[in-house]
């Protein structure tokens, strides 16, 4: 039991990105031992009639992978891009991008109807990659052999590969990538206008979670106000902080992340948390 307790403890301490990775690994192990069952009940079939009988597969397909190289590449990619994403977005927004990417990737796959079934987290990853690339296009990721590459170029390469791949045997998977990329771009552009389209998804998920919660007894209790409670920031303070964040993001967009001084990097890191 100590092994299970260790796993639970490590999972509790993990970031939201790491938790998604742990879930994907756990489900991949299940699929190794029950591939037929997992494929039948959790992957997304291209037939709309099959999908209507298993509607949950529009999300579950994004948590299963066909083989070890498939999951290894996706999760390494998720780890690095996901943690970069969290420097500029919230944890809830990370989940919104991920789930909306999977949802719209699945819808795009169903529209194309290429036959077979869809599996893998790539559509969710594309939403996160394109979402953060739209936010900070000039941010550079450094590679040992070729040096710094701007984030928008990396996103453009993945999108181009997916477009070319529409003529390949994996046309359905590439169509799903493009669906995820599209929702990532739209989501960030809407956030810039002050519209969080992920709130709709949060509301739907929250509705079903509340349905599953046991009803609490209507008991009365006395609530004492704590005099030493932490003061919430005022609207004015929040606006000032947001202006500082926007100013730093503009600087990154124009000159890259390395142009920030230590104070600006520390402030951005704390704000991201």
Estimate the mean pLDDT confidence.
85
SSE arrangement, N to C: HHHEHHHHEHEEHHHHH
**What is the terminal-to-terminal distance?**
33 Å
- Helix and strand content put the structural class at mainly alpha
CATH architecture of the largest domain: Up-down Bundle
Q: Number of DSSP helices?
A: 13
Domains counted in the coordinates: how many?
Answer: 2
Note the main attributes of this structure.
single chain; 273 residues; mainly alpha; Rhomboid-like fold; 2 domains; two-stranded antiparallel sheet; two-stranded antiparallel ribbon; 13 helices; 4 strands; 68% helix; 4% strand
What can you see in these coordinates?
The chain has 13 helices and four strands. It has 273 residues and is mainly alpha-helical. The protein folds into two domains: 206 residues, Up-down Bundle (Rhomboid-like fold); 38 residues, no CATH class. Strands 1-2 form a two-stranded antiparallel sheet. A hairpin with a 3-residue loop joins strand 3 and strand 4. Helix 2 crosses helix 3 and helix 8 runs parallel beside helix 10. It is globular, with a radius of gyration of 21 Å. The two termini are 33 Å apart.
